[in-house]
Amino acid sequence: MTLHTEKGGISRSARRFLWKLSYLQRKCIFSVLSVGRFPTHIAFIMDGNRRYGKQRNLKGGAGHKAGYLALMLMVIYCCELGIKYITAYAFSIDNFKRGPEEVQYIMDLMLEKIELELSKEDSLFSRYGVRVHFSGNMELLSDPIKDAAKRLMVATANNSNILLTVCLAYTSMNEILHAIQETYQEKLAQIQLQESISEGRISMCNPEQGDHVLKLAEIEKHMYMAIAPDPDIIIRTSGENRLSNFLLWQSANSCLISFSQLWPGISCWHLVWAVLNFQRNHYYLEKKKKKQI
Ligand SMILES: *[C@@H]1O[C@H](CO)[C@@H](O)[C@H](O)[C@H]1NC(C)=O
Fold it and tell me: Which UniProt keywords apply (predicted)?
């Protein structure tokens, strides 16, 4: 299993055996969970990579590398569990304000991992049927990252087990603003077209019927996250309870769960706990959903 970084002492076959053992254990627990109502979409705010690195005296940005491994493991657990959508808050627009060295490290790491996935025949994404999508204001990224991200989206486009959305150069406010601007432009173009068709005649566009008004469904169509249903669960690590500008529009009825564990330390037990918690609150959340609008 390529995910295990520590190679010292333990042989390859022993590692494979241990992975198999933990797989069987997970399979057993997950089958118990699947009796209850199941979440479709789980989103993660991956907080605590830097602190993890500092606590362990890891050099440079190694905490972020550990965070990446934790995300890949989480993708595997979610696949095994039968979750259809997962979303990870990888890099916020606000993160560009961090030290240039750290930003560079994260971007280099991302590029390296994407290229690695693209170069492998038997990549984790093809093995588990993971389709990858990047959400966010891609214009803010450098050309090599933008290009690699696009290539990964194309390469995994036919995978259909699970959709992993990576929020990159993302904030909710930026997403909402962008969606409203696009909807407005679209509406404006429609109105101009209708006016040019009906020139000299009575306008076909009737403001009283609300043709000029932006509608909720139209705005939602232009959201970066339109690719997935709203999340059932949002998990944040490292003991914080804030959403930090993540999925503000989509989280009206999400079950919010915070763990004190730093992101690289998250395990399949946290996932199990989160799903149980969701199942306990499910009927309440469903009722809320029905009352909406
Ligand atoms: C995905 O499927 C389409 C249609 O079957 C095909 O044209 C395309 O090459 C496939 N893409 C990949 C990356 O396999």
Answer: Membrane, Transferase, Transmembrane, Transmembrane helix
